[in-house]
Design goal:
Largest sheet: 6 strands, parallel
Shape: globular
CATH class: Alpha Beta
Distance between the termini: 15 Å
CATH topology: Rossmann fold
Helix content: 25-40%
Number of helices: 7
Bound molecules: 6-phosphogluconic acid
CATH architecture: 3-Layer(aba) Sandwich
Strand content: 15-25%
Strand order of the largest sheet: 1-9-8-5-2-3
Structural class: alpha/beta
Amino acid sequence: MKKLVEVLANREELIQRSLSIVRSQIQTAIAARGQCTIALAGGSTPEPLYRAIAAQDLPWDKIHVFWGDERYVPSYHPDSNQKMARLAWLDQVNIPPSNIHPMPTGAADPAADARAHQTQLQQFFQVSEGEFPAFDIILLGIGDDAHTASLFPHTEALQVRDSLVTVGNKDGQPRITFTVPLINKARCVIFIVAGASKQPALAQIFAPAADAMTYPSRLIQPEGELWWLLDAAAGEDVKQPR
Ligand code: 6PG
């Protein structure tokens, strides 16, 4: 794993730097494999990044978009991560509909939808049961509680090692989420974190020792590159690796 930590002066610079790195990773993936597979983060932080990506001139037919997690709501629901990314980016560009691979949430059974998405991933990446595909890029955020994707503190999802996708749990509300081993298989994981409220979580995530069940983002140690892109409000106390 190659870990890179950058603290940017403000949110605007954070988004511009994130865009630069995402663009570069997309171009690297397409040059190497003829396509790019990118899994998106939800929440509010990445929305301006998705708007900025939509304004780029990119080979959309070579880009396949997934989500690292999804709230268990319909795609038209205001809380839907899919809805946010479609409004900010995907509806604004000429990307083939078949290149968009949302997490299903329509079965009224989160475990069934998680299994269905796992099958969709296995078929897309042509991997067999027990094999973990490598996404080119996985974008992540962190919560104030140091969760990432829908891997919340002290939940069963943190322990899942034999699946690509599982059911997350936020205060009793079901989520669909990539598992730790799937995220850690990625060629490039990019955390994009902004705001002073994230400082305490970052302190525990970057601490030499802390309980990963309490601070789940500590579990993200990908085989490829690990980028931490922080604005100064979030990252002013983060000790950058030498
Ligand atoms: C989600 C996200 C989640 C998010 C963090 C940070 O579904 O909410 O995937 O993991 O990245 O909660 O959210 P903010 O960017 O809104 O602070």
